[in-house]
Specification:
Elements lengths: L7 H4 L9 H18 L5 H6 L9 H23 L4 H23 L8 H25 L2
Length: 143
Amino acid sequence: MAATYLPDSLVALLPPQTGILPSWLAFISLVAAGNSLQTFATLKATKEIFGNDPAQVTWLHSHTFGTWTFLSAAIRAYCAYNPGNKELYDLCLLSYWLAFAHFGSEWLYFGTAKFGRGLIGPLVVSTASIVWMTMQRGYYLGL
């Protein structure tokens, strides 16, 4: 197992598959779940993303956004532990494309998102994950 510098109790929780991609997916899933929880506690981070028109960020919007984010986290977590499942792998990859399209269109088309700290993370993570998963698709699916 790659992460031998971590405590055994933590290593046991990591996806058992070879390669770093499954651990990346698990990590991003945890980050997304945390982001999802914060949308139910405060509007601050959501307003940071959609800062060009913060008046549109309501509790309803934040809760909907958090639920969508948690669904994405669940899909990515399942894929982290089952990267050889073609349908799940493709669904996970699609979740990154949807995130990229959502954040990109809110920024470039609708103009509700502002380029800054709140937007850079989702754009970088979705882009890197799309590229990485596309490049590794054959390896994990045995194609």
